[in-house]
Amino acid sequence: MSMDKIFKNNKEWISKQLELDEKYFENLSKGKEDSGTRLGI
Q1: Which residues lie closer than 8 Å to 18 by C-beta, 6 or more apart?
Q2: What is the torsion angle, in degrees rounded to the nearest 10, for the CA atoms of residue 10, residue 20, residue 29 and residue 26?
Q3: CA 22 → CA 1, 6, 9, 12, distances in Å?
Q4: What digits encode the pLDDT tens for the residues 9-38?
Q5: CA dist., res. 13 & res. 24, Å (int)
Q6: How far apart are CA 7 and CA 34, in angstroms?
Q7: Which of 25, 22, 10 is nearest to 1 (CA)?
């Protein structure tokens, strides 16, 4: 697969994610907190 095709597919995927949830990447960047896996709890 060419790099041009990879970048095209990536842009299409990003567009689809933003159509479903306009804050998808903002929420993703917040990370995930799973308090049950902390030591000492």
Answers
A1: 24, 25
A2: 110
A3: 29, 22, 19, 14
A4: 999 999 999 999 999 999 988 877 665 555
A5: 12
A6: 33
A7: 10
The count of residues in the chain is 41
pTM: 0.63
Q: What would the DSSP string read from start to end of 1-41?
A: --HHHHHHHHHHHHHHHHHH-TTHHHHHHT----GGGSTT-
Task: Give which of 12, 10, 14, 13 is closest to 25, Cα–Cα.
Answer: 14
